[in-house]
Design brief:
alpha+beta; 3 domains; 13-stranded mixed sheet
């Protein structure tokens, strides 16, 4: 069942009236702003002339904050392209509309907290890469869709969607509870979608890359690591490469996700916080839950672990390898590759060592291939699950190389390329391919770490460059700032949007608000003392006193004060970073 494509949105003092712009449909979705009742009625001219009317392209959902419910609608969209002749859209802009006409029912503190919650919601909505289709199920791979029954395909889009990837599932729940509203419930995914026209040997085809970010254990780089008790891992992303040629379609799926152990790496002002592996948790149980789910959804697994095998990363690599051994899952094979060691001194050609070690499984797993008449020729029997520490930079490089190997086979099977040809043989498409994967890396990285990906110069050009190293340094510096001083807010925004934290309208009246956190005096005093001491230290050096002894004493005093306060800040680093105040503030692991 398709969703209506566009609507007229009428706003009155007591109702939101949503009118489908579809020929032959004579109904209205009416939301009573007072009683909060949602109903379908016949369009019999009850829209008052005084109503404020605008065009919208879908309902994002309804979120409840301190002031009450807010209706979120899509006001702008752009077309990304088509998959299997279905239009794919990207959300460009949204609007939030409060049911309440005034906020006089809130006290001053509640109004402050409500504005904070609104700001969090808007922060998530401003994420650039929300996608939807009113006629196509974007949450499933082509292979999963081909294995469904006609009854399943007749369900409303939100009912048949893979809930792992529906980012507005929580805020759609009030609409989804009424089956008759199926054409108004628009499932939306977050990730990235690129749809490009390619040409090799003067033969045109569509090259598509779809990445779906999972809603479970979603969050920011350092506040979301490892696995939880249900087997969900941080930064889990399903990436599907699709090729369309003359009505035939091929699909190749890979996954990424945090190391499925119980571990954390909370920001503490250090450049790289030391990971903590929790000894009181059963890593084998978490691992089993995760991979039981992965094998069920994708088949056999080759786990590619790209972390360093020396230093602090080695502890995780060693624990992961031992857990794989202890779990004894015949469907899971572990492949460790010390990316930084093997590719040190810009020896990026050595990645071929890893690709060669994976060739047997790559051919065994295959890919999904369906002809234009609907006949399924082959299915993908397993996936490569790749991870590094963040499942971003190193992971992107390896996933792009594996996808390229498979793409060349698919194009040869279509007859677009000769079997001995490669994409790099003077093909204009080679540049398109490299840029798509580099842009894909940047998008996924921004959503998790706050900046574009590192090492994208290799993805774009096939080699490491000096400019690429400089850009990596800049991105690392920006990541440091965001991870330490902005990610608490970002984590809270995601938890609020996904329903991991439920706002009660009594917040700030009968119960305290989690947003009201009293910071210790040291949080304010020590940084101020450090800045003053550092300023005086610099002034003492640049503007010396005429008496050398006094000037030396000033330098020593302010230098010592600067060093001591800086040491205090570093020692108690977690007290000075931006920490989550909602769902993650309650999470404690022994």
């Amino acid at each position: 069942m398709a969703v209506h494509e566009s609507f007229l949105f009428h706003i009155t003092s007591d109702k939101f009236i949503i009118e489908p712009r579809v020929d032959g449909v004579n109904e209205l979705l009416v939301i009573d702003r007072v009683t909060q009742e949602i109903s379908l009625t016949a369009n019999d001219g009850q829209i008052p002339a005084s109503a404020l009317t605008k065009t919208i392209y879908g309902i994002f959902g309804i979120i409840r904050l301190v002031a009450g419910p807010y209706l979120i609608v899509i006001t702008k969209k752009i077309k990304v392209g088509e998959i299997d002749n279905h239009s794919i859209w990207q959300v460009v802009d949204t609007e939030m509309h409060s049911y309440k006409r005034t906020f006089f029912h809130l006290n001053e503190g509640q109004q402050v907290h409500n504005r904070t919650y609104v700001s969090m919601t808007e922060h998530v909505l401003k994420t650039e890469h929300f996608y939807f289709s009113t006629t196509f199920d974007l949450s499933h791979t082509l292979q999963r869709l081909s294995n469904t029954s006609p009854d399943f395909q007749s369900l409303a889009l939100h009912e048949r969607a893979d809930q792992r990837f529906v980012w507005n599932g929580h805020i759609l729940r009030e609409l989804a509870q009424q089956p008759e509203l199926g054409k108004y419930c628009l499932p939306i995914i977050l990730g990235c979608i690129f749809i490009k026209s390619g040409s090799v040997n003067n033969k045109l085809f569509d090259y598509i890359l779809v990445s779906r970010r999972c809603i479970y254990r979603a969050g920011t780089r350092f506040y979301m690591r490892g696995v939880d008790d249900e087997g969900q891992v941080a930064n889990f992303v399903e990436t599907e490469q699709i090729v369309q040629y003359n009505g035939n379609k091929c699909s190749f799926v890979q996954t990424r996700g945090s190391i499925p152990l119980f571990w954390s790496q909370r920001p503490n002002l250090k450049r790289i916080p030391v990971p903590i592996i929790y000894s009181t948790k059963s890593h084998v149980e978490g691992f089993k839950r995760h991979f039981d789910d992965q094998v069920y959804n994708y088949g056999k697994q080759v786990v590619i672990n790209l972390v360093n095998q020396k230093g602090y990363e080695h502890l995780l690599e060693k624990a992961f390898a031992q857990t794989v051994l202890n779990a004894q899952n015949e469907h899971v094979r572990y492949e460790a590759f010390d990316f930084h060691k093997e590719c040190s001194q810009l020896r990026w050609d050595r990645l071929s060592l890893l690709i060669n070690r994976l060739q047997e499984e790559r051919k065994q797993f295959g890919y999904f291939f369906v002809q234009k008449d609907g006949h399924v020729v082959s299915q993908q029997l397993g996936v490569f699950r790749t991870n590094c520490m963040d499942c971003l930079d190193r992971t992107n490089v390896v996933q792009g190389m594996l996808a390229k190997e498979v793409l060349q086979e698919q194009l040869a099977r279509f007859g677009v390329m000769e079997s001995e040809q490669t994409i790099t043989d003077g093909s204009v498409f080679d540049l398109i391919y490299k840029n798509v994967w580099a842009d894909h890396a940047d998008v996924i990285s921004k959503q998790y770490a706050g900046t574009g990906a590192l090492k994208t110069d290799f993805t774009r050009t096939g080699k490491r460059t000096g400019l690429g190293l400089i850009m990596d340094g800049l991105n690392s510096a920006v990541r440091y700032f965001k991870n330490n001083f902005q990610d608490g807010f970002r984590q809270d925004a995601i938890d609020l949007f996904l329903g991991n934290h439920i706002v009660e309208e009594t917040e700030g009246v009968s119960e305290p608000s989690p947003l009201k956190v009293e910071r210790d005096w040291k949080y304010y005093a020590v940084p101020v003392i450090f800045l003053v001491a550092m300023a005086m230290f610099v002034i003492s050096i640049l503007l010396p006193d005429e008496h050398f002894t006094e000037n030396l004493m000033y330098i020593l005093f302010w230098g010592t004060a600067s060093a001591i306060t800086l040491a205090v800040i570093v020692t108690y680093g977690q007290e000075f970073v931006d920490q989550p105040r909602l769902a993650q503030a309650k999470v404690k692991m022994d």
